[in-house]
């Protein structure tokens, strides 16, 4: 009885945790540059003893959730006409500065200029260039090239007076070394800043959408709900069997 109860309990707990991951993905189906979080189950046998002897008996197998990482499949790119919007074509990341002064990476390219004249993202995090935080001249007309070059034209100046302000820091570290933080930003596994990669290209005046498939996410939610119902049903059956066993023992 103990085996059934605890096995079903661990299964229902992990089904709820995976449901939370799927729900978060679905909630971000329209978030710019969002990368879906992946999750799966794994079986963990539990045995008497310390597991060092072949005589240790496996009494039950628990279920634990495993989060292998994120889905790095590119999302759809849509033109917006906004000169400050950029979408990364293929692999790569935009570098931003976090609140603690560190460096993190995102695919969300919906940028704007704040009151201090700095280029920031939608979360008001400073966008980094090859020379550090990107600052632009007040009132200047900004354009961003495919290689991340930021050009500025001061009002009243001729088109030939365009000046290069900076170049966006575009990186492309190994996805297997990337980790997602609670703030939704990605970081390298060792915490060190990644080197700029000139091979990363942008689609100017465009934004990349989320790579979450809403239909697949809805199917996954239904599947997790069914799994949870099955596990709770096993718990109910175990409780009924336990009560029946107690009644039989009381008659003896």
UniProtKB/TrEMBL annotation:
Keywords of this entry: Bacterial flagellum, Cell projection, Cilium, Flagellum
Residue ranges constituting the Flagellar basal-body/hook protein C-terminal domain according to the UniProt record: 206-248
Superkingdom in the source lineage: Bacteria
Protein family per UniProt: Belongs to the flagella basal body rod proteins family.
Pfam annotation, one family: Flg_bbr_C
Lineage: Bacteria, Pseudomonadati, Pseudomonadota, Betaproteobacteria, Burkholderiales
Flagellar basal body rod protein N-terminal domain location: 5-35
Name used for this protein in its record: Flagellar basal-body rod protein FlgF
Principal location: other
GO annotation, cellular component aspect: bacterial-type flagellum basal body, rod
Species this protein is from: Paraburkholderia phytofirmans OLGA172
Location within or outside the cell: Bacterial flagellum basal body
Subunit structure: The basal body constitutes a major portion of the flagellar organelle and consists of five rings (E,L,P,S, and M) mounted on a central rod. The rod consists of about 26 subunits of FlgG in the distal portion, and FlgB, FlgC and FlgF are thought to build up the proximal portion of the rod with about 6 subunits each.
Presence of the UniProt keyword Endoplasmic reticulum in the record: no
InterPro entries on file: Flag_bb_rod_N, Flagellar_basal_body_rod_CS, Flagellar_FlgE/F/G, Flg_bb/hook_C_dom, FlgE/F/G-like, FlgF, LlgE_F_G-like_D1
Keyword RNA-binding on entry: no
Gene Ontology BP terms: bacterial-type flagellum-dependent swarming motility
Flagellar hook protein FlgE/F/G-like D1 domain ranges (all copies): 87-152
